[in-house]
Amino acid sequence: MTSPERDELLRAPLFHTPRNPFLEDRALVSHEDGGLLIRNGRIAASGDFETIRAAHPEAITTDLRGGFLLPGLIDTHVHFPQLRVLGGLGRTLLDWLDVCALPEEARMSDESYAREIASAFVHALASHGTTTALVFGAHFAAATAALFEAGRASGLRIASGLVMSDRQLHPELHQTPEAAYRDCKDLIRCFHGRGRLLYAVTPRFALSASEAMLEVCQTLRQEHDGLLFQTHLNENPQEIAEVARLFPWASDYLAVYERYGLGGGGAVMAHNVHPTASEFDRLAAEGTTIAHCPCSNAALGSGLFALKRHLKAGVRVALGTDVGGGTGFGMLKEALQAYLLQRVAPEGAMLDAAQMLYLATRAGAEALGLENETGDFQTGKSADLVYIRPPANTPLAAVLERADTSEQALAAIFTLAGSESVCEVRVEGSIVHKGSIVYK
Ligand code: GUN
Ligand code: ZN
Fold this sequence. Notes:
Elements (H helix, E strand, L loop, with lengths): L7 E4 L2 E3 L12 E3 L2 E6 L2 E7 H7 L4 E4 L4 E4 L1 E7 L13 H14 L4 H17 L2 E7 L4 H14 L2 E5 L1 E2 L12 H15 L5 E7 L7 H13 L4 E6 L3 H10 L6 H7 L7 E5 L5 H10 L2 E4 L1 H6 L7 H7 L2 E4 L11 H14 L8 H8 L1 H6 L17 E4 L6 H8 L3 H11 L5 E6 L2 E5 L6
Parallel strand pairs: 1-6, 8-9, 9-10, 10-12, 11-12, 12-13, 13-14, 14-15, 15-16
Antiparallel strand pairs: 1-4, 2-3, 4-5, 7-17, 17-18, 18-19
Helix pairs in contact: 3-4, 4-5, 5-6, 12-13, 12-16, 13-16, 15-16
């Protein structure tokens, strides 16, 4: 008989946002000498170290002072086949797709190449502290299965799906709606709800999906419980004009998806940089989440995101890196970029560290319907965490030594912590990544 695992008590300063800091004051919970009690992969307590230790003297303490504990980061928009097109600067969306992204995505027809990229992709997520991601798969079923398999092997929480397109892209990426339906059914059967994997119905965007293909998306969502949905919305003016030409009956871009019931809880639409007033209201009413991808919006020149208007209208917003239109896998960097662009946007929001943390963690969990499982350190949730510890002699280490308040420390982490500062990453209490830097 195996003996039950002993409780583990992690000791380090910790931060989390169990409440929404856009709606409530003092939503940031921080403990300078924090404790996180892990029992069978779940959080049994979080708070002040001494208090938790007094209540659980039997727990084994792991002393992580010198670093900081944050909830595992959640990326709500990222493309696995685009790992190798990162850095394709100097283009706008349709041109970038044509020249940079789509030729690389066509290479995913080679299953062994897809496996190699999938494995590098999940490693990149984990090494940046991301524990949960909503991922665009490939246009090929075998490559999308390779991503799920890599996700399973990594221990990360991965939601993904076959990318569905039957027009307007490079023809080798097109599939008939019938073939897409069959492939999706197989992938759902193999992967949806298995361990930490979830399936997301994934039409690339309205521009590359016929009405028949969108109908298949609707059917899949009706036939299976708990599927997620992901696509793109209102990213670029040329794209929007083309969607208007292809769907003359639609009053705006969102109306195309609405006709097929493709919104609501569990639906994530990336970008929404150029929405109409009516679209704000309808997104809010439906509960659809917008994945805000500020690095991508700047790199592709898509525009400035109207964060304040989204929040005011009550639209849910989370963050995505949009690799490879974006600039990398770092969700801390993505939150910083959101802050920076809001500083220069006309009528931009002034984000504080609590709001940045919420956007990079709990907001993503809410978007994916996983808010009872991950996204913060409340008792009962899965122990999904990233341990940030700056290497010695780095600017971050120097700043953190001086930080007077926990908000200052958190803001410094967002500003300066890259993957070199990601020391350990856990999902359900188990280590899924360990940084390579050795600390004294
Ligand atoms: N719209 C359709 N496909 C894509 C993509 O791969 N990246 C981005 N940023 N927008 C898209
Ligand atoms: Zn995208």
